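B., you asked whether I could sanity-check this one before it goes into the benchmark set. Here's the sequence:
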Amino acid sequence: MTYEEWLSTIEQLNTTNTNQDLLNKLKQEPVNNNLSSMIVPKLVTLINNRFEQSVNKIIKEENPEYIIVAFDKGKTFRHEEYEGYKDGRTETPKELKMQFPVAKQILTAMGIKYYEIEGFEADDIIGTFARYCDEEEDFIGTIISSDKDLLQLISKDVDIKLLKQKDYIRYNEETFKKEWGIDPINIIDLKALMGDASDNIPGVKE
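And here's what the prediction gave me:
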């Protein structure tokens, strides 16, 4: 595949498919080393354009007074507590890693604060802000994520917009309990019993 053909394919994927489709296409059609240095920056630009569009869409739909974005940063205290934590996960693709610095630059340019804290996951940061909303009368919060672990943070002052592949589900305390049959905080117990293969947590054996 020539460089020109790659650019044409990338442009088409950017307008018609998801970022994951684009990364899958990369794996299926590897290019030689001479082309890869030219193509990867192009990919990063296109994917981060989509990131900016997503942020703008959230702002338009939610109209927040304040907004923060949380990122993971390296290993956490959980790795120290449990040596096998997240073992078995495939390494983050190089193309995806290259996106993060640019995404952070985009957020800074947009005036949006982002947090990444050594030793903690993005979930911990989100949980901290959710608790702040619970404790401060002047604030309510909406979590926007595809991570079901965060459902435990739903409260009278915090709801969640759980992103799906093509849509989303909005949960508050009432709608969550109606669908799941448990209180949001009991997600902790449910996950402990069931385990979590993505984090290499075995759960309780029958």
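One thing to flag: The longest strand covers residues 158-163. Otherwise nothing jumped out at me.
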